Amino acid sequence: MTLEAALALDAADPLAHFRDRFVQSEGLIYLDGNSLGQLPKATIAATTELVTKAWGERLIRSWNEGWIDAPARVGAMIAPLIGAEADEVIAADSTSVNLYKLIVAALRRDPARTVVVSEAGNFPTDLHIAEGAVAAVAGAELRVVERGALAEALGADTALLLLTHVHYKRAERFDMAGWTKAAHDAGALVCWDLSHSAGAVKVELNAAGADLAVGCGYKYLNGGPGAPAFLYVAKRWQDALHNPLSGWMGHAEPFGFADAYAAAAGMKRWLTGTPSVLGLGALESGLALWDGIDTAQVAAKSAALWNIFHAAGTAAGLECVTPSDPAKRGSHISFRHAHAYEIVQALIARGVIGDFRDPDILRFGLTPLTLSHADIWRAGEMLVEIVESGEYRRPEFAVRNAVT
Amino acid sequence: MTLEAALALDAADPLAHFRDRFVQSEGLIYLDGNSLGQLPKATIAATTELVTKAWGERLIRSWNEGWIDAPARVGAMIAPLIGAEADEVIAADSTSVNLYKLIVAALRRDPARTVVVSEAGNFPTDLHIAEGAVAAVAGAELRVVERGALAEALGADTALLLLTHVHYKRAERFDMAGWTKAAHDAGALVCWDLSHSAGAVKVELNAAGADLAVGCGYKYLNGGPGAPAFLYVAKRWQDALHNPLSGWMGHAEPFGFADAYAAAAGMKRWLTGTPSVLGLGALESGLALWDGIDTAQVAAKSAALWNIFHAAGTAAGLECVTPSDPAKRGSHISFRHAHAYEIVQALIARGVIGDFRDPDILRFGLTPLTLSHADIWRAGEMLVEIVESGEYRRPEFAVRNAVT
């Protein structure tokens, strides 16, 4: 691939105009949109308006002027990106807190089913939260097995199969329909963590027959740092499952001020405390960009970007750990190298921001809305230069940060 | 009290200059700062800077440039307002979610103690969450009794006494030291909900020997709508108690990406998911205003504002349900009236924003930093006029909103 070829792909790219709707810094190629998505330009004005007008001037009245419905409204905007109905998704809390709610709820559905099955090496908070959730249900336990042993771990005692759709490190994608069926065949529910899927790949929760899902607002959805997360409960489970974090915002009548809890109908019961209005506002602004986008075009561009960067990484001698079949991966690419940390730091020093993941993974987010083919080509050239020249061996690149 | 007398109090008020540090709307007297605090002017620039620079330009690097420490940093700013040490407080999630964490943790401390005691008519989410929390611990139960029966409800089976320090509706304040001692005498822990106390009255958690506390960032702390909440764990309990919502941000090594959960030392274990960075930023800006404020002056001004508005309400024939002893109340005042809802609506139509609380309470927040004595005098005059003239009987004031 030459730069000219990359520029030609940009010229023909139907999504190319989205890049200018995000704040771009001169000299920066940001390959970490799968960790924190870039800032949509429109979000600057939206946040200022929310702060100065809705909070500053309208004050408490704003709860009646849009805030109280924001969790459901934002959820409805996420729904088409994950193959759900508008009234099956709500924005709330963090991914971790939402996972806790759904795992406990699934465990309480049927006392005879006591086991949560998940994958070793799943995103840590999924396993950590599952540990906490099983402790909240008498007799429940967490069974964490290697991917190859998942199928045989499902059985008559399984309450829930808890999987992350696209692996945070290697970008491997589970076959959602296949694993949902496997869980159902065992009589269990399935919960999908869509943190690296929503806005990255085509997700079809309802077509796959999925039961539960959670996901993150601050990655491909560009909702801002620590944006509210979301949760999905298939309509057929909405009456049967209950939120263990039974706070007033999930009450059938939050402003009735009754002592006893009574769960709201539909998705509202999955709310707990007062939602982060600033966070919801920024997330809503980020989601507005997705209106009308053809996710097939997003997937096609992701694949094209992937091919360019895969070629560069391979040329640099890195071992790619992400599946080459686009249907079996997300929208990031990861390589293994003994000096992964130093190479990532050397790239950052050159203005190419990727991610290091312990112990030896270089991870690069290929976000179709914010990146051009030429961006990826240029980043790939730098990767090759840094590895081939040994530039990454400079001592300053070995200094560790708190967050990487 | 005459307007001249109120203006004279303003002229002598050492806190008077704070009023101009908040966005004030022409013609509005905002007596709802105990529901949603006003916008500090400095927060507009702080939020814009956070969005455009830290998110927009620095992107993921900002986690290493201040974001990762924000929960502890903000907690340390709250600590002096509640009589705690800097390393006993952390900002996280919502008040409801934090209540769940602490109630479950307290119940798990000693399996022989299975009962959470709380007050009927406590703020609903405290009771709702306690209902959810006892369901997460085998054999645990919630015992909700009238205030007069609390003392006898404490016993050898009590794990936790859960009280709201200043009542959300009537503003009655519990004697923190006395009730903490009563809980300890029974061998139980105490958890204080400080939502209507922090920034409103002098709170002395450590002097009272308190064990646990939670509170709200969006009321007197002016942190913005749905601001992150906080939690306090006395140092002597920090090793023994564990967060049931065991997410990655509370892990000893969040970026070690291990499968097994290992709790962080100190307050960090009370974090769960990725924190709301926008929310923390606005809260931090609101808290900066409190730096160096003498809380004795805050209490004195609260009492002076209270006297002015109490006189007006009484003149209007309303029944005051808030204790007259300043040491036994918070910084809001509540009246009972059969047409409470309509009177509140009539006041709002005149630009005086108070709160209605079901079924018959008018509630007015008297926030010492944002209000002048003359503001309160003028609002009192309007209250008298509205009641005496029967203005509140106009049909439009009977129309109910979703949030009141």
TrEMBL record, chains A, B:
Listed Pfam families: KYNU_C
Pathway: Amino-acid degradation; L-kynurenine degradation; L-alanine and anthranilate from L-kynurenine: step 1/1; Cofactor biosynthesis; NAD(+) biosynthesis; quinolinate from L-kynurenine: step 2/3
Cofactor: pyridoxal 5'-phosphate
Catalytic activity: 3-hydroxy-L-kynurenine + H2O = 3-hydroxyanthranilate + L-alanine + H(+); L-kynurenine + H2O = anthranilate + L-alanine + H(+)
Molecular function in Gene Ontology: kynureninase activity; pyridoxal phosphate binding
Keywords for this protein: Hydrolase, Pyridine nucleotide biosynthesis, Pyridoxal phosphate
Main enzyme class: hydrolase
Keyword Hydrolase applies: yes
GO terms under cellular component: cytoplasm
Statement: the UniProt record of this protein carries the keyword NAD: no
Quaternary organization: Homodimer.
Function recorded in the entry: Catalyzes the cleavage of L-kynurenine (L-Kyn) and L-3-hydroxykynurenine (L-3OHKyn) into anthranilic acid (AA) and 3-hydroxyanthranilic acid (3-OHAA), respectively.
Record's protein name: Kynureninase
Species for this entry: Sphingorhabdus lacus
